[in-house]
Amino acid sequence: xxxxxxxxxxxxxxxxxxxxxxxxxxxxxxxxxxxxxxxxxxxxxxxxxxxxxxxxxxxxxxxxxxxxxxxxxxxxxxxxxxxxxxxxxxxxxxxxxxxxxxxxxxxxxxxxxxxxxxxxxxxxxxxxxxxxxxxxxxxxxxxxxxxxxxxxxxxxxxxxxxxxxxxxxxxxxxxxxxxxxxxxxxxxxxxxxxxxxxxxxxxxxxxxxxxxxxxxxxxxxxxxxxxxxxxxxxxxxxxxxxxxxxxxxxxxxxxxxxxxxxxxxxxxxxxxxxxxxxxxxxxxxxxxxxxxxxxxxxxxxxxxxxxxxxxxxxxxxxxxxxxxxxxxxxxxxxxxxxxxxxxxxxxxxxxxxxxxxxxxxxxxxxxxxxxxxxxxxxxxxxxxxxxxxxxxxxxxxxxxxxxxxxxxxxxxxxxxxxxxxxxxxxxxxxxxxxxxxxxxxxxxxxxxxxxxxxxxxxxxxxxxxxxxxxxxxxxxxxxxxxxxxxxxxxxxxxxxxxxxxxxxxxxxxxxxxxxxxxxxxxxxxxxxxxxxxxxxxxxxxxxxxxxxxxxxx
Length: 553
Fold this sequence. Notes:
The chain is built from 17 helices and 20 strands. By secondary structure, it is α+β, with helices and mostly antiparallel strands. It has a 5-stranded mixed β-sheet, with helices on both faces. Helix 1 packs parallel to helix 11 and helix 10 (308-316) packs antiparallel against helix 12.
């Protein structure tokens, strides 16, 4: 498929309908493009879950709108100068670190039970149990012990020193008094957690809102949490509707069935630009560039993809520059690696793979793949170069990008089939358990200076024996990459730290465990009467500050 045809198809997704009609101003209805596979904070890395939980759960620490670490459930961040963070020696003689936290006095679960160090200790117990298989098991492995001094004060002892020691955002507290019974058999905990079996239990939530209704695959209803002691939210009720077909998402907005489309999980830039041309006067449309990396994870256990020349050929065969210009109005620049140019540690000196079909063909020839009678390349053993690419079903832009990729790869002799699934299946099973055949297209949304341990370190490859923990879905293994990732946490001097970042990005662009596509921007489409919503541009969604949202007078 040509890019011009692709662009025409994108434009055709939008059909003029009746103007939007606002709902009662005590209720806000939000459309998103994915339904979460779970609401448990420690399972399955899905932005849809983070978006919903941002309204109903408070993290210990957070990255704020200014891209700085800040407290939510804690009183203040640990600090070496104040003595609330201290270097120490671990029991086995290594360099460790102790950090002190104090929970807010007014922090309570939605049933009125105070949030205490019992919840802290229980969360750590769950996270460090291998058969549970939490998403970020690495965090819990590095916590050697936790001292609970009283109900609110505790000290975390870490097995290493770190340049960014203040934050503990991924340590997601869970209510011990509710979840202890479900954890009785750790291997069954994921199936028994109340976050899935009883999600409307108020005791699971501690944010401005609590979940009061769940229609699986359809919608989640949240209502004001009466136990919340912070700024009172304006809206009595927020309904988050999952509409996985993005064309239908737009139609629901125009018909008035939803009030807004979340920028974090809504329309792609090309769809938003087309929508703005037709209906921009009726809505607030805010574009926010962010740390969002659209890419294709490669299954490196597939023999067809183990030769780096094949991976490089696949990238040379894609016209990413034309994709950005013709489809995204130049707003989503070509990605050359996983670190976004907006990030202070970005390095521009990495290898760049320009659109060059002739170079792609030459690399495939070097790798032993020659054209067969049907145009599909074969090797000396007679195997054909046939691959498969999957993504989230219903995302029209991704589905159209797949067709473009399929056509451009065919042009160099690579046959690629398409297999898409609903997001909750794609992320909850296929990707997280590395069940995809060869290629999986999706996006990573990160925080500033986020060390990619979970996605690139060899210890983070999900497998049955570690409970499918980790996000190295490509099965990428490189000893030097492991060393750099380990050192990035310990080498704090600015120039030396940047040198490590540069080398890490060079190795990534050379090895290509994933194919970089483009850096995404978010399009927040909101009613004209909504105020207070501030896009963050990083992995923590705008909903964390939902209590600031209001209606213009």
